Amino acid sequence: MSPGSLDNGQVATSLSAVEASQPERLVSAAAEVGARTAQLDSLITAQRASVDKLREGWSGTAANAALARGERNLATQEALRDKLRTLQGVLATGGGQLGATRTALLDMVSQLKGQGWRISDNGVATPPPNLPEVFRSYPQAYTRMLQRLLKTYDGIDGETARKFPTFDEDGAAKPDVSFAVGDDPRKEEIEDLVRRSLAGDKDAARQVDDILDGIEPNQLQPHSDPNNPGVTMPPVPLTPDQAEVVSQMQSQMSGKSLDELVALKNDLGEHGDIIGDSMQVMSDPDVKFPLVVDEPFKNQIPPGIDTDAMTGGKGMLPQSVKDALDAPAVSRAIAGPDQTIPVTTYPSGDDLQKVSELIRAGDAQFQQGSELDRTMMDRAVDVLHGAEKENRDYFKSSNPQGDSIVQDIFNSAGRDQIVSHDMITEPNSTFLDDIARHEWTDNGAAIRTLTDWVHDGATSTDPDVALRAGETANALSTYLGDSGDDLLNLQHPGGWGLDEDTTVGQMNPDLVQSWGDALDPYQKAMLGDGQMPGFEPVPGTADSDFTQMRNIFAVMDSDPTAAKAWNEAAYEHILDYQRNPDYNNLANAGAMLGVVDSAAVQEMESRGANNLDNQKAVYDMKKAALGAALGWPASQIPAVGGTIAELTIKGMLGSEPTLESVTSNAPTTNVADAMNQTNFYIAEGLVRDDPNLGEMSQYVNPEDGSLKRPEDIPASQRRDYFLDMQEYVENRGFANAMDTFYKQYQEAGGINVPKGFVLRG
C-alpha cells in the first residue's frame, strides 16, 4: 500500500475542505431550530385547547367534521414539530462530533508542520530532511493517522446528512421517529413486567422502578439551553423503555379503585412509589408516550390521532383518581327547615387524602408541573375556602377536618415546584392572603412545603430553578410588603363570641418561619444590592421609602423563632457592609439597621402597649440575633462595660430598655452609637497602612499598628477617642458616606421612637 492512500485505495475528503468547514454553524443552527420548535409547540398547545373546548360545547355531524379537520391540522403540525426536534438533535450531535474531529485533525497537522513536516491536501505526511533511521516508520504512521481522521470526518459528515429528516413541500410528513420500542418481544416483556408489578410482585416492581428512576427532570419540562442563554429547549423524549413502562402503567392501572391502588402501594413496600411516579409522568402535559389500544378499537381511532405519541394530561390518570379530582370538594347545604346556617361537608375529602398518600409515596423529582398536582392544589384551595366559611358560620378558630385534607395535599402535591410557583406568582391571586389569614391546626407547617425549595433554589446552578425561586420570592416579598401591617392586626374567634386581636406570627408561627427561610437569601437584593434572577428590589427603597421593607421585617418579627433567624441574617449583612465600607455599602448598612429597629417597634406595638416588658422582649430577641451573627454563644453574649462588644451591641441595638426610658418615651436607640460603631470598623481598616495618622496616632498600638479598642481607652478620654475617630474617617473620604449612613438610618425609621414621641433636632 502506498503512503498516499487508505487501505481501500481511496482518499477521504481533503484537508483544505476540512479547514474551510464551519461545523460550529450546525450547533448554532440547532439552537435556532430548538427555539422555533418551542414556538410551534406553544402554538399546538393553544390550538389543542381550542379544539378541546370546541368538542365540549358542540356536537352533531357538522361538529364532527370540523373537529376531524382540526385534529388533522394538529396532526400535521405535530408531525412537523417532531421532525424539527429530530433535525435539532441531528444538527447538535453532528456539529459537535465534526467540530471535535476537525480540531483533532488540524491540531495534529499544525504540530507536524511546526516540526518541519510537509502535509499534502490528501493527508500524506512527508518528513523533514535527514530524518534519523530510527524514525523511518513515522511518515507512514502519521499518514495513516491523518487519513483515518479525514475518513472519520467524512463518515460523520455523511451520517449527519443521512439522518436529516425529509420534509414535504408544505412542511408536513409522518414523523420518522416514534416511541416504538423495537420488536414486539420487548414490548411484551415490559407489558408482563408491569402486569406482575400490579399483581404485587416486588421484584418486577423493582425493575419497573429502576426504569422510571432513569427519567430526568429535563424529560418532564422545557429547559434552558446551557450553551445558548435565552434559548428554551423542548423536553428530551422518553427512552423507548421509559415510554413503554408509562404506557403500560397507564393502561393497566386505569380501572383500579383508589383502595386497590393504596393497598398495592403498601404491598410493594419501597417500590410502591411506582404508582405515584407513573401518575405524575402520565399526567405531565410536556411528556409523550404511546397509548395502549386494544385490537378491536384500533380502526376507531379518529384521523390525525397519533397513538404512538400521546400527550400526558389529567385524562390519562386512573378513572378512580379522575373521579376524586372532578368531584365537588365542598358541599354547603341547609340541612332542615329550621336551619339558617348551611352545613359544610367535604364529600371527596377521603378520596383526596388517598390520592395524596399515593403522591407522597412517590419521588418529588417527577413532580414537574403535572396536571395531577395542579388539579390537587386547586381542590386544596376549594377545601380551604369551605373551611374558612365554616369557621365564620360557627365562630370556630380551627377546622381539623378541612385542615387535614388541605395539609395532606400541600404535603404531597405541594412539592411540585412548578405548580407552587405558578399558584404563588399568579397575577391578582388571593392565594397567599388566604393561607396567611386562615388559622391552621398545624400552625402553618404544611404550607412550608410550597416554599421550602426557594432558599436553596436562589443560588441553584440550574438557571430555570434559580429564576423560578426568584419569581416565587418576589411574589412573596411583594405580598408581605403590601399586606404586612394588616397581618399584624388580625382577628380570630375568642371566647363568648368575641374576636381577639392577634398577629400572623402568633396564629401561624411555622408559616412565618417558612417565609423567613424562603426570603433569607434575598435580604440584600431587597435593597437593590446585587441582582438575583426573577427578584426585584422592594418598591420604594430606591427612593429611601422603606415602608414596604419595614412591613416585611415586622412580619418576620411576629414569631420569635423567625425573628431571631431573620435578624441574625440582617445583622450579618450590616456588619459586612461596615467592614467593607464604601458609599453604597454604608448607605445599605444604615437603611437595613434602621429597618431592623423600626420593624421591631412596629411589631411590638401591634401586640399591645409599649411597655417595659414588650421593649425588653424585643431587645432580647435582637441581642440574641446579633450574638448569633457575631458567633457568640447564647450564654456568653457580652454585657456592657466599655468594650468593643458593648460598642457593637449599642451601635446595633441601643441601650437596654429601662423603666425610665419607657415612662419618659425616650428612644432606646441612639444613632450616635451606630455611627461610633461604624467609624470604628472603618478606622480599624485604615490605620495600619496610613503614614499620616495625625491625632489618631495616640490610639494605635505601637506593637502591631492596630487600632486600640474602646476598652483600651480610659472612660474619661473615650468621648475624644470617638470624636477624633470620626474626624479621621471623614478626612479619609468617608464624610459623604457617613452622612448617607445617618440619613438612610433615619429614613428607614431607625430612631426607635415609640408612638407619640417627637424627635427634636
From TrEMBL:
Residues 236-453 form the TPR repeat domain. InterPro entries: ESAT-6-like_sf (IPR036689), TPR_rep_actino (IPR057037). SUPFAM superfamilies: EsxAB dimer-like (SSF140453). It comes from the Bacteria. This is TPR repeat domain-containing protein. It comes from Mycolicibacterium moriokaense.
